[in-house]
């Protein structure tokens, strides 16, 4: 069954086919045991931890926490009822409001259709949270339960369990630890939750996130919160009231919408109901998969020839803009070449179009570039050979602003014929250098063993300038401004799954993810994982709450994709903030890029990591280093990004650019930035608004447009979507390839 997001017109339950769907989800939940066994079997030869888990048959432990009377025990009973086919009451429930009815820490096993069939996960019920330090469960005890430090049946009191108590387990094993934390929140009371209880839940959430425990919200009593749902449960995903309540839950705790599940517990019913069951089983499937993911993660220089490359030919000539193959018919392009002021022979001037906003290559663009490259490589080849000459060639890339007549743009026959030899090119390492216009002013100090490029865009005297363009009032272009194949999901996914890194000594290439608080860094990592897992995941804890203005990620942590099957690791860091003494420090980001920061380092807002710190690596290997930096920028707020925050990003960018470390922008929240895209994601490359936002990203950080990728992260969806996936996969494909290019160059210089 496909569970569709709220933005679609049809609801989840409208597609339910009573008996078959219930059976489907029962099978899906039961099959988690097989899934876990397969996962562990695959890793037996790789990780001793996986072997241990398989031998001990660790059942993922799921801990329930919430306010008194929210329905924690009732949720456990309702799960059992869905599998038993009858209403059960294994976990005792008190229907009267007031104090907590659960007094002890107890484990509940879930039975299959046959009572003897115990499912491969367990639940732990916990004393309810109440206002005040002397009432209800103590937050420290909840955290101890997450760590596996509480013994079965221990009595819970307002005063926390201490080391040395009989209820304290000093040496917890994998089977004692929690692998998913589930908050139970009553839908009709979420707007009126006690502030002290919310504070306690936030403290628990922060601790659980530090422990890398995935977190989910079960929103109960949906029938009491919405008359529409009370009348017909199948209206749950068409109800504005239910979505509003889910958003409140997300705002309160920061749990992403796609990890919030509205359900109805069994309360006064005497018989089970398919609609009730399928909502519970759908939520349970997500919970068990998240717990299983956590379990698996726990276990595993001379004469210098000169050439001019004439760029931006499409911007200089309308004829060429329309058809690149007209470049040698164009009078305007020839006039640009003839008016060169550097004295370079015309035979050494090559008009080209650089890749700018494209994300796929084009044969016409390629052949012009290759012809220029062929000439650069063959100048003086007889004397020293191709490789020696290319490393000492000064390439002057200049498009001078020259006044030309606006007569006919086209010659009857081309002025040049363009052919490319079949030469095999060596790897070119290119470093930009500031050179003056006159050759006589170029000092020997500026001539290095690197190819030197000078880029002078039209209309700008200084390198790096860019003229802003007015925004068109219409939302949509007549045709897409970037070609994109929406049917390439399977091809991209297969390519990434079979991708081999250029250095066999590096098993996983590191990609560092940086950006402002709330931009969607962790959500992007999760969204990438979703594509390969085929379901919604929560490997990187994400905070959707924007009210507290704090970074939810506080420690440096690496996240493998598809349980390590994809040869890359995303490194998530604390979000950036404008103030000097807030958020992650630029120095720490730079150290992390170069591999000096160990996994688990807790960021200090007041000072960067010191070489004397235990988390500092003085001599990092290639496997420790990041080979691409991904800036995650939200499209809906990029225009309003604080200049002080941009300055921090620029410090990082300038420093790592000196060493040629590639950088990419992933622009998130495109659906919130453009109504056209919100309605139809396939309009993303027709949207003038999205292109404008990408241009702002480019202007602020200087990242080329071809390295800026607009995506939509998974947020409130509970099932994956092909259009969301293909945008993410295309971005990931580009990221891993440019990172591997950098790895290849780094390996060659070691």
What is the total domain count? 3
CATH superfamily of the largest domain: P-loop containing nucleotide triphosphate hydrolases
CATH class of the largest domain: Alpha Beta
Strand proportion, as a percent range, falls in 5-15%
Major sheet description: 6 strands, mixed
Which outline best applies? elongated
Helix content: 25-40%
Helical/strand content category: alpha/beta
Descriptive overview:
The protein is of the alpha/beta class. It has three domains: 60-299, P-loop containing nucleotide triphosphate hydrolases (Rossmann fold, 3-Layer(aba) Sandwich), CATH 3.40.50; 306-456, no CATH class; 489-499 and 506-541 and 552-749, 3-Layer(aba) Sandwich (Rossmann fold). 35% of the residues lie in helices and 13% in strands. The chain is built from 24 helices and 17 strands. The strands form three sheets. A six-stranded mixed β-sheet has the order 2-3-1-4-5-6, sandwiched between helices. Strands 13-14-12-15-16-17 form a six-stranded mixed β-sheet, with helices on both faces. Strands 8-7-9-11-10 form a five-stranded parallel β-sheet, with helices on one face. A hairpin with a 4-residue loop joins strand 13 and strand 14. Helix 18 (521-533) packs across helix 24. The longest helix has 28 residues, at 722-749. It is elongated, with a radius of gyration of 30 Å. The two termini are 52 Å apart.
Topology:
Elements: H1 18-30, H2 32-43, H3 48-56, E1 61-66, H4 72-84, E2 106-111, E3 118-125, H5 139-147, E4 178-186, H6 195-210, E5 215-220, H7 222-225, H8 227-231, H9 240-253, E6 260-262, H10 274-299, E7 306-310, H11 313-316, H12 318-322, H13 331-338, E8 349-351, H14 363-378, H15 381-384, H16 386-390, E9 394-398, E10 430-432, E11 451-456, H17 489-497, E12 509-514, H18 521-533, E13 557-561, E14 566-572, H19 586-593, E15 626-634, H20 643-657, E16 663-668, H21 670-673, H22 675-679, H23 688-701, E17 708-710, H24 722-749
Parallel strand pairs: 1-3, 1-4, 4-5, 5-6, 7-8, 7-9, 9-11, 10-11, 12-14, 12-15, 15-16, 16-17
Antiparallel strand pairs: 2-3, 13-14
């Amino acid at each position: 069954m496909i569970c569709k997001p709220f933005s679609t017109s049809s609801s989840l339950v409208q597609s339910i086919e009573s008996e078959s769907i219930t059976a489907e989800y029962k099978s899906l939940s039961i099959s988690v045991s097989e899934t876990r066994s397969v996962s562990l079997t695959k890793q037996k030869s790789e990780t001793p931890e996986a072997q241990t888990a398989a031998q001990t048959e660790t059942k993922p432990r799921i801990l329930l926490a919430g306010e008194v009377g929210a329905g924690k025990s009732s949720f456990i009973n309702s799960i059992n009822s869905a599998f038993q086919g009858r209403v059960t009451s294994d976990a005792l429930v008190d229907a009267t409001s007031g104090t907590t009815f659960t007094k002890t820490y107890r484990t509940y096993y879930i039975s299959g259709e046959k009572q003897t069939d115990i499912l491969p996960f367990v639940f732990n019920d916990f004393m309810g949270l109440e206002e005040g330090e002397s009432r209800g469960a103590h937050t420290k005890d909840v955290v101890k339960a997450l760590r596996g430090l509480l013994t079965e049946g221990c009595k819970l009191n307002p005063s926390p369990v201490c080391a040395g108590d009989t209820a304290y387990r000093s040496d917890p094993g994998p089977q004692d630890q929690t692998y998913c934390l589930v908050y139970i929140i009553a839908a009709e009371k979420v707007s009126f939750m006690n502030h002290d209880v919310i504070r306690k839940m936030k403290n628990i959430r922060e601790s659980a996130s530090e422990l890398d425990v995935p977190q989910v919200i079960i929103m109960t009593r949906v029938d009491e919160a919405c008359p529409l749902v009370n009348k017909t449960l199948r209206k749950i995903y068409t109800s504005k009231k239910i979505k509003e309540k889910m958003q409140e839950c997300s705002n309160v705790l920061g749990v992403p919408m796609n990890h919030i599940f509205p359900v109805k517990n069994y309360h006064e019913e005497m018989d089970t109901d398919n609609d009730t069951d399928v909502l519970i089983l759908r939520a349970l499937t997500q919970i068990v998969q998240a717990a299983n993911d956590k379990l698996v993660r726990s276990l595993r220089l001379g004469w210098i020839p000169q050439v001019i490359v004439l760029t931006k030919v499409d911007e200089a000539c309308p004829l060429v803009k329309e058809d690149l193959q007209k470049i040698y018919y164009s009078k305007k392009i020839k006039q640009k070449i003839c008016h060169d002021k550097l004295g370079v022979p015309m035979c050494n001037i090559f008009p080209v179009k650089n890749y700018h906003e494209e994300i796929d290559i084009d044969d016409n663009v390629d052949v012009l570039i290759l012809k220029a490259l062929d000439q650069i490589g063959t100048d003086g080849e007889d004397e020293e050979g191709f490789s020696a000459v290319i490393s000492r060639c000064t390439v002057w890339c200049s498009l001078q602003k020259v006044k030309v007549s606006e007569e006919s743009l086209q010659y009857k026959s081309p002025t040049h014929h363009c052919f490319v030899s079949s030469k095999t090119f060596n790897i070119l390492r290119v470093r930009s250098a500031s050179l003056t216009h006159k050759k006589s002013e170029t000092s020997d100090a500026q001539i290095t063993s690197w190819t030197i490029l000078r880029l002078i865009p039209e209309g700008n005297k200084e390198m790096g300038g860019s003229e802003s363009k007015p925004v068109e009032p219409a939302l949509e272009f007549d045709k897409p401004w970037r070609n994109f194949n929406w049917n390439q999901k399977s091809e991209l996914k297969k390519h990434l799954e079979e991708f081999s890194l250029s250095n066999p000594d590096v098993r996983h290439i590191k990609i560092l993810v940086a950006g402002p608080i709330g931009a969607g860094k962790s959500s992007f990592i999760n969204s990438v994982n979703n594509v390969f897992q085929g379901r919604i995941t929560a490997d990187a804890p994400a905070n959707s709450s924007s009210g507290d203005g704090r970074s939810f990620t506080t420690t440096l942590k690496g996240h493998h994709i598809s349980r390590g099957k994809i040869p890359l690791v995303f490194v998530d860091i604390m979000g950036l903030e404008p103030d000097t003494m807030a958020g992650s420090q630029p120095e720490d980001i730079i150290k992390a890029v170069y591999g000096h920061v160990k996994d688990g380092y807790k960021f200090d807002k007041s000072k960067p990591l010191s070489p004397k710190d235990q988390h500092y690596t003085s001599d990092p290997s290639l496997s420790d280093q990041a080979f691409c930096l991904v800036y995650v920028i939200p499209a809906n707020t990029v225009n309003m990004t604080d200049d002080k925050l941009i300055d921090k990003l620029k410090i990082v960018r300038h420093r790592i650019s000196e060493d040629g470390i590639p950088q990419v922008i992933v622009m998130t929240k495109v659906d919130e930035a453009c109504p056209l895209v919100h309605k139809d994601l396939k309009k993303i490359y027709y949207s003038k608004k999205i292109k404008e936002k990408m241009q702002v990203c480019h202007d602020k950080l200087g990242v080329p447009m071809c390295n800026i990728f607009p995506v939509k992260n998974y947020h409130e969806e509970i099932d994956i979507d092909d259009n969301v996936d293909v945008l993410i996969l295309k971005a990931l494909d580009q990221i891993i390839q440019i990172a591997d290019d950098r790895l290849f160059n780094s390996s060659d210089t070691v």
